[in-house]
Amino acid sequence: xxxxxxxxxxxxxxxxxxxxxxxxxxxxxxxxxxxxxxxxxxxxxxxxxxxxxxxxxxxxxxxxxxxxxxxxxxxxxxxxxxxxxxxxxxxxxxxxxxxxxxxxxxxxxxxxxxxxxxxxxxxxxxxxxxxxxxxxxxxxxxxxxxxxxxxxxxxxxxxxxxxxxxxxxxxxxxxxxxxxxxxxxxxxxxxxxxxxxxxxxxxxxxxxxxxxxxxxxxxxxxxxxxxxxxxxxxxxxxxxxxxxxxxxxxxxxxxxxxxxxxxxxxxxxxxxxxxxxxxxxxxxxxxxxxxxxxxxxxxxxxxxxxxxxxxxxxxxxxxxxxxxxxxxxxxxxxxxxxxxxxxxxxxxxxxxxxxxxxxxxxxxxxxxxxxxxxxxxxxxxxxxxxxxxxxxxxxxxxxxxxxxxxxxxxxxxxxxxxxxxxxxxxxxxxxxxxxxxxxxxxxxxxxxxxxxxxxxxxxxxxxxxxxxxxxxxxxxxxxxxxxxxxxxxxxxxxxxxxxxxxxxx
Amino acid sequence: xxxxxxxxxxxxxxxxxxxxxxxxxxxxxxxxxxxxxxxxxxxxxxxxxxxxxxxxxxxxxxxxxxxxxxxxxxxxxxxxxxxxxxxxxxxxxxxxxxxxxxxxxxxxxxxxxxxxxxxxxxxxxxxxxxxxxxxxxxxxxxxxxxxxxxxxxxxxxxxxx
Lengths: 505, 161
Fold this sequence. Notes:
heterodimer; A: mainly alpha; two-stranded antiparallel ribbon; 73% helix; B: 2 domains; two-stranded antiparallel sheet
């Protein structure tokens, strides 16, 4: 019954039109250096807000998967990663291009991206229903600790400074408290403004923090160079055979990517860097400095960045807790469309959730034909002048905020948070924890206050349920270990260049 | 613009103090033990602690480091203009879209940014008008976003269906 319903949804020509248009859009945005997959997703919102639920979410899944892959193309050909998720292996990919093997570099990225995406989709489809069944017995205590654990992970992986990550998180939590108090209904931080009564809209803040701040940062960036080394030879012929040789690297990258993606706050850029570092340190082939070693590292990291997208949907669909900023947008779109992500969704509307999972397979398989077409038309994409594109994106930012909220106040929020985001990034304060704090704030406050009121302030209640107590102890242990490591071994951190730290994927 | 972490910590500390004080002033309703200000107060105390720690940590490296570093592009007039035009354009949009309408506002806004980015007026102006018309058509007619027509209200029938 559900399978039949999924196939009938997938047979809808409207859905396919949306998927193909989103794919082309994602490929173009991802291939332009400076424009990120998150920016592509945020700018989709004004369009998908008018669509039925499945095409709306399918559009985000397809555009983000395509953008993450397309980031490899300028990375390999211009040594200028299209998205931060491709930065880890840009040098290796460009090195192959300089040797006249750009088709190998791009093909390795293409096929491993597809494999990574498909493997994470399989893990998502098989693990999410099982986790959802377990989550049905969760109370406010479990959700509170899950929220805290998620926010903790987001803070710890966000950048080199734990304190700045925490500051960003608390700032996001503060923004979430603006508006009416969920328990008593009293207004907070509204200063008598009716615009603030309903709280700060997520989409205008997201567009401001991630899109406008990016435009401000790139306002004086040098223009991308000429694609001097366009892809030569057949991408399929030169790299399809390499898949079997590097199968372990692809599998390892896919598993790392899915796992890292499932951690709230850790996006595809961090997944790619961890997978790249793992391939370089622990793989016999990945340690080599020759072409074989470069391909192994590209395939591991490229599989990881696409796999992380699927991984991020595990906490998003099962618990309603976003794995990254892209799934944060998906969750808010789902809410607007009347679908409440969480374990009951698997019981009440299985056809929607499995339809979403099916789109992962479709989108990742579409990367092969459309990705190859994008590689071959890369020169044309690079001819799009950023001096013209940036103002149009800015216009879409304003229209995006206005379309969702229908007030000019939302457009003002875009300007304010664009500037705040630019200032935060310039001072190495990561943006992702703030967004996750803003999204998880209401859940965290509601579950915290409910538990406090239920127990009349007895903190032991937070630990007296088996699953909730265990997650609570794990969360406290994670905090203790992380702070201990920061105090006693302050030099330890994942080796991610400062420029990439805390950026969206 | 990168400022010294002492200032960053100070700003976060100040924000925390504001949040905690405002939270403290929100009295709980009589029947509730924990009111609307309880959670914000916890956040405020958290912000104050984190801000103080960032500032204290930065104090140890204060000698020899500057209070603020202005980026290279901000030293030229053009660089500053290319940066400032982005927030200025948003403010202009908010102020002008009501009286002028979306089409006129978007055309002026795009043409101005094109000019600041070095696109010649004879190319920038028609491009801005064309783009504004297309965006107006898509958002007003296809997506049914209630865009303002302003002074162009009498001509709205031409571009909307």
